[in-house]
Amino acid sequence: MKKLSKLRAGFLAGLIMTIFAAFFVDINDARAEYGDVVINNYSDGAGMRPVVFPHWFHRMRFRCKVCHADLGFKFKAGGNEINMVKIIDGQFCGACHNGEIAWSVENCNLCHSAKPNTPTQVHESTVQKLAQPTGASKK
Q1: What is the pLDDT of residues 9-54, one digit of tens each?
Q2: What count of other Cβ atoms lies within 10 Å of the Cβ of residue 37?
Q3: CB neighbours of 97 closer than 8 A, spacing ≥ 6?
Q4: Taking every pair of C-alpha atoms in the chain, what is the biggest distance, in angstroms?
């Protein structure tokens, strides 16, 4: 009987959170968090939302070399020519997002979740906040 009560309480708590989210949270747009990489090299042009890549979520599970050496991701936001053809072919994200290691590409909105027109960037990066010295030219 206690187990049934706990299940009911858990279900009720989940239902309340879902209702709260439906009324108070815009669940259509993912909110990039510190360190997430927004990828929008081709998305806007293809009529898709940009990708929000949760860098630290992946970093908790894998060493840097897995993606940056073994899979060939460059250490620069926007530095990779990633597209869906390559991903479906098993390159870049597709090496893991193949339906065996992680979900496959059929659920577009799991990755393509940023607000349209969000530029490619490392969200909240310190580099974005550094001031350019007065009189310095960009190289």
Answers
A1: 555 555 555 554 445 444 455 566 778 899 999 999 999 999 999 9
A2: 19
A3: 87, 103, 104, 105
A4: 74
DSSP secondary structure string for all residues of 1-55: -HHHHHHHHHHHHHHHHHHHHHHHS-TTS----TT-EEE-SSTGGGT-PPEEE-H
Q: Count how many domains the chain has.
A: 2
Say how many residues make up the chain: 139
Q: Which of 37, 88, 95, 43 is nearest to 67 (CA)?
A: 95
The CATH number of the domain where 99 resides is what?
A: 3.90.10.10
Assess whether pLDDT exceeds 70 at residue 126: no
Burial class (CB in 10 A: 0-12, 13-18, 19+), 77: buried
C-alpha to C-alpha distance for 2 and 5, rounded to whole angstroms: 5
Pull the structure tokens for residue 27: 């669940």
What is the pTM for the complete model shown? Answer: 0.65
- Structural domain boundaries enclosing 21: 1-27
Is 136 among the domain residues? Answer: no
In this structure, the answer to whether residues 23 and 89 fall within a common structural domain is no
112: helix, strand or coil? strand
Whole-angstrom distance, CA of residue 2 vs CA of residue 81: 55
